[in-house]
Design brief:
heterodimer; A: Beta-galactosidase, Chain A, domain 5; Glycosyltransferase; seven-stranded antiparallel β-sheet; about 20% strand; B: mainly alpha; about 0% strand
Chain lengths: ~625, ~160
């Protein structure tokens, strides 16, 4: 084979056959800068990146849009086995190692999070190929397409920098050694031990491009790496499975949009809850519920600034809707655009439709108030008294609960059927009033208001125990009059609604573990198919971590610990989790990586720590 | 130049502008809270910030009123419609330049480039303040229009 000519386009040495290409969801690696995120396949292809924010337009959308939606690939020139794939310790830099006949080829890549105060692009993806054992042939293919219509860019070159532009967006791709690239073709390169191949992709949205030399970008990425490692060093050293928990915390932080503090539920849209099915939703929004759970997770590991930032976001984002708590918001606290389908997008593994927007935004969900008020209480208890405005907002939420708890709602699972009286929602409404009363002990509150909350809390308790408990089976039920169980009820021991080791609580935990068992450590969130939607879905991963927490909180730490370790063994190869899992194949399903699953993992670890050394 | 009119009516017009912005917030039209934004340059407590911010806004409003009074003096008359035109110009400058530029000088306001090390907690306003709600430009322009009309009417009457 003649030596490849760097920079000369030519036919790829092997066909990259998309019909046969199926990358498992959990095999994707997350790169992020706390403003947006990319997903990278083990074959070196960036298949997902929205700009300039998590909820922006995809510039590489192949994950759910097929080859026409664009990708950016660096890989060996011939098929080669991935022999190692990992995050570098305690940071967000990803390393993939292939074993080729000529030796190892190592791809190290990351996005630069800290660009503030320096003349750097706000979105910067840095990728480096190294060949430590000898010269290795590699390929680069850069094919950006913008938005729903997969718009191709207009291109020009500035020196050897490829500039790809659309009316308001521009990308600059520079490489060392320099290459003359065009979007689309695959180019061969030779990587030698003394000459790694480095490239940097800079993004500009409604602002001028900032050109960065690849080697300078690499230095910036390494500095960023050190900052992440310093961030991780502060995390409580006594937490069980610390490395696993740290990966979850890093993921949660990467999924928090720094300019506003909004926690995005997942960086993707329409990864299916059932392969080939229609349960495909857009999760690139922020749920106040997730922010509240995140507050508890970060407080528990000593990251108080992150916890307070979530509360600041909650206050700012909910201002237009108070005293109603919106179900979900955009990253800047606006109402999401109406849900719609992209009819020409093929979807992940043929799972249709691909959706933008989220229809759950218009629902009434009572449980969110409980999560938010509990988070406010946890902050108060951790020594962060609420500002007067924060307390006024929380008290307004409690008033809303006192006024509306008798109404049916859509519930935590955002059912698209008629609203009903969900027991979990009622319990969380009780929690909202209970935590409001606890906070009121530390903040000035009118006596009449306190009396009203007390009265409604007592009425709620009576209502739940009268209508939401099945005395024959000894378990709380999914909704009033239902015989189904609901894994969301695993929060019971945490609430102090009744004794955490009492018969009703234990009966509910045991009923859920038995009736919603999906095999191994996995649980369905409710009996499969009982939601009015077509098609099935996988086991719901946060529920399994809630079971760990419930077992630990209800005096069964050994069972909790065993379950936790089983669950951590089911993580993706990089320690990341989606929302759901196929119980038969253990393939991850749903949007990925999922903040709620990672928050639940952290809280399960915290519960194990609280349960004592047996559990830890 | 009507100095007495400027001193009194500048305060009244700024109070009107602030009241309209607060009404828009309470009515769910915009999250733009000028008193909070200005006040958090000196304190992180939202309640104290609003009080401080209101005073700062009065001072700034008074400075702008000086420009209005000078313009009226140069034109030789003060009318509601000239005041309204000046108000629209004032609103456009505030939305397109002053508010977005705050990101560069406000110690507690994040920018769109904020990363994990940022301790700033106020979200950036974005172009035309759109991050604070899609109706923010309309609300701000309306409030500044009212400010200009009020100054035109009051200085004319005086």
């Amino acid at each position: 084979m003649p030596p490849p000519i760097p920079g000369q386009p030519g036919p790829p040495p092997w066909t990259y056959d998309d019909r046969d290409r199926e990358i498992a969801i959990e095999d994707y690696g997350l790169l992020g800068d706390t403003r947006t995120a990319a997903l990278v396949a083990p074959d070196g292809s960036v298949d997902w990146l929205c700009i300039p924010r998590f909820d922006g337009r995809p510039v590489f959308g192949r994950l759910v849009g097929g080859p026409a939606a664009g990708s950016f690939r660096l890989a060996p020139a011939v098929p080669a086995a991935v022999v190692e794939r990992r995050y570098l310790p305690e940071c967000a830099t990803l390393e993939t190692t292939w074993q080729t006949e000529a030796g190892r080829l190592i791809l190290t890549e990351g996005m630069v999070a800290e660009v503030s105060g320096r003349l750097l692009p706000p979105t910067m993806l840095v990728r480096r190929l190294a060949a430590p054992d000898g010269p290795v042939e590699a390929v680069i293919s850069f094919d950006p397409r913008l938005g729903e219509g997969h718009a191709r860019p207009h291109t020009h070159h500035r020196d050897q920098v490829l500039v790809a532009g659309w009316p308001t967006v521009a990308l600059a791709l520079s490489t060392t050694p320099r290459m003359h690239l065009e979007p689309g073709p695959t180019y061969e390169i030779t990587v030698t031990p003394d000459r790694p191949f480095t490239c940097v992709l800079a993004v500009a949205d409604r602002e001028p491009l900032v050109y960065v030399a690849p080697d300078a970008a690499w230095d910036v990425l390494e500095a960023d790496q050190r900052r992440w490692q310093a961030w991780c060093r502060d995390i409580d050293p006594d937490i069980p499975c610390r490395d696993t928990v740290i990966r979850s915390l890093l993921t949660l932080r990467l999924l928090t949009y720094s300019p506003s503090g909004a926690p995005v539920a997942a960086p993707t849209t329409s990864l299916p809850e059932h392969l080939g099915g229609g349960r495909n939703w857009d999760y690139r929004y922020a749920w106040p519920r997730d922010a509240s759970i995140g507050i508890n997770a970060f407080l528990g590991v000593g990251k108080h600034e992150e916890a307070r930032a979530f509360m600041a976001w909650l206050l700012s984002a909910t201002r237009l809707d108070r005293p109603r708590l919106p179900v979900l918001l955009t990253l800047h606290g606006k109402r999401p655009a109406p849900e719609r389908e992209l009819s020409h997008w093929p979807g992940y593994a043929g799972s249709l439709p691909v959706r933008l927007g989220n229809g759950a935004a218009t629902q009434h969900q009572l449980d969110g108030y409980g999560w938010v008020l509990d988070a406010a209480w946890q902050l108060t208890r951790a020594g962060h008294p609420l500002y007067s405005e924060t307390w006024r907002t929380m008290a307004g939420f409690a008033d809303t609960v006192a006024r509306r708890w008798r109404e049916p709602d859509a519930g935590i699972w955002e059912e698209r059927a008629a609203p009903s009286h969900h027991v979990h929602s009622k319990l969380m409404a009780w929690l909202a009033l209970d935590r409001a009363l606890r906070i009121a002990e530390h903040h000035r509150t009118r006596a009449a208001r306190i009396r009203r909350w007390r009265t409604e809390r007592a009425l709620l308790r009576d209502d739940i125990t009268a209508h939401g408990f099945d005395r024959v089976r000894g378990t709380y039920t999914r909704s009033y009059g239902s015989v189904d169980t609901d894994a969301a009820l695993l929060v019971l021991p945490y609430l102090d609604f009744e004794g955490s080791d009492g018969a009703r609580v234990r009966g509910t935990i045991d009923a859920i573990a038995h009736e919603l068992d999906a095999g191994g450590p996995l649980l369905y969130r409710y009996p499969p198919g009982h939601d009015g939607l077509l098609g099935g879905e996988g086991a719901f991963l946060p529920c399994s971590f809630w079971l760990v927490q419930a077992l630990a909180d209800s005096g069964r730490p050994a069972d909790a610990s065993a379950l936790f370790h089983e669950l951590t063994s089911l993580a993706g190869p990089l320690g990341l989790y989606a929302e759901e899992m196929d119980p038969a194949t253990h393939r991850h399903l749903g949007n990925y990586p999922q903040a709620l699953t990672h928050s639940a993992l952290v809280q399960a670890a915290l519960a194990l720590r609280s349960a004592g050394p047996t559990a830890s | 130049m009507d100095w007495a009119g400027w001193a009194l009516f500048g305060l009244l017009a700024t109070t009107l502008l602030t009241a309209l912005m607060i009404a828009a917030q309470l009515g769910g039209l915009s999250r733009l809270d000028l008193s909070l934004i200005l006040g958090t340059t000196v304190t992180p407590d939202p309640d104290r910030a609003r009080a401080a911010g209101f005073l700062i806004h009065l001072c700034i409003g008074q400075l702008f009123a000086l420009g209005y009074a000078a313009s009226f003096a140069l034109l030789g008359r003060a009318t509601w419609w000239i005041g309204g035109l000046l108000g629209l110009l004032h609103g456009a400058i505030a939305l397109s330049a002053l508010i977005p530029l705050l990101v560069g000088v406000h110690p507690r306001m994040a920018s769109n480039r904020a990363g994990p090390g940022s301790t700033a907690v106020l979200e950036p306003p974005g172009l035309l303040g759109l991050n604070y709600g899609v109706q923010t430009p309309l609300v701000a322009m309306g409030a500044h229009l009212a400010y200009g009309i009020a100054l035109g009417l009051l200085l004319n009457a005086h």
